[in-house]
Amino acid sequence: MPTYNCGGYIGETIDSVISQTYDNWELIIVDDCSKDDTEKVVKKFKNDNRIRYIKLERNSGAAVARTEAMKKAKGDYMAFLDSDDLWYPEKLEKQLKFMKENKYDFTCTAYEQIDENGKFLKKIVRPKVKADYNRILLDCPVGNSTVMYNVNALGKYEVPNIRKRNDDALWLQIIKKAGYIYGKDEVLMKYRVRNNSISSNKWSLVKYHWQLYRKIEHLSVVRSAFHVCYWGVIKTLHIK
């Protein structure tokens, strides 16, 4: 869990982990030099030895924070959770069962959207049953806080260091080895839509998509332009 200035939400997010019906977990929180009361809120949970809090020496971005958390993780499976999102209590238990029964190494689930106050926005995002590299590249139908993968089978990764869309970049790295990401069509996460979030202004993300396609995935200029345009059309339709 990378975090930055999420003191108003991270307590509830941590509670959603503590409330899991599957309790053999470790939560690694990497604070990207928050300037609010994030550290104070996290320290309220200091009596739970499954929770580790690490504060970076300087603000470096979510990609660096996420990579640091992945390095410290000791589990056989890796799950991701942003510090303002919420897991359903059965999230870990059900997703682990889904993976083990089907022998899947890389999975995600459906999720619902909530506003800053936790109110349901009447929108549920459902994953693809099975998606490959090209499908993820097209519009990345994956909710970050729903992802889980098998570390023993796929290893660990360094998150590509771009300021935004680094989660998309990570999934593309993992899927090159996994082959596919499989979706469990059950809502197990609540994604918080915030007005001032890093991804709230969709058009400000265009340059980061270009960096993802050209500098990280090394696509041709033509193919990169196609994907940027496709993404822009999809977001325009969504806004309308």
Q: Would you kindly provide a written description of the structure presented here, covering whatever features stand out?
A:
The chain is of the alpha/beta class. It folds into two domains: 199 residues, Spore Coat Polysaccharide Biosynthesis Protein SpsA, Chain A; 40 residues. 38% of the residues lie in helices and 20% in strands. Strands 4, 5, 6, 7, 8, 9 and 10 form a seven-stranded mixed beta sheet that branches. The longest helix is centred in the C-terminal third of the chain and has 19 residues. The radius of gyration is 17 Å and the shape is globular. The two termini are 32 Å apart.
Task: Give me a quick take on this structure.
This protein has 240 residues and is α/β, with parallel strands linked by helices. Helix content is 38%, strand content 20%.
